[in-house]
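Students often ask what a holo structure prediction actually looks like on paper. The answer is less mysterious than it sounds. You provide the chain, you provide the ligand, and the output is a string of discrete structure tokens encoding the 3D arrangement of the protein together with DQA.
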Amino acid sequence: MPKTIYILNGPNLNLLGKREPEIYGHDTLADVEAQCAAAGAVVGLVIEMMQSNHEGQIVDWIHTARDVAAGIIINPAALTHYSIAVLDALNAFDGPVIEVHISQVHKRESFRHRSYVSLRADAVMAGFGVHGYVLATQHMGHLINDAP
Ligand code: DQA
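The corresponding structure tokens follow.
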């Protein structure tokens, strides 16, 4: 029986592929969704990809995940750097959490170096481009299927 994982995306990631492509690349979120669905199928995971520009919507999806998702992959985008509400919601989720950033945030402005979400995340990817989502999906399979 495949398990469901959520892949949550925060503000402005709906513009992926069009927004600052020199930083975030040319793939769209739909491209990333297809890549993660393929990677998830290999490890017995069904992915549900979501994006919102609204903090409260991300919080609500994390609450829903408590009942339906075995794990959460999240690119909180700018919310990473200031949202205690997203951190608190993730702290109320029991499964594995992987934080993904397309860009290498530690090479960028200092305000991007702080992540509230990292206080909860079991693993963090940064600077792998959108391939980081695929790697995170593969690792989620390991955490859910193989971890003790
Ligand atoms: C991002 C990095 C954040 O600092 C930024 O606000 C984003 C995207 C990334 O994927 O590299 O919107 O999370």
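The mean pLDDT is 97.
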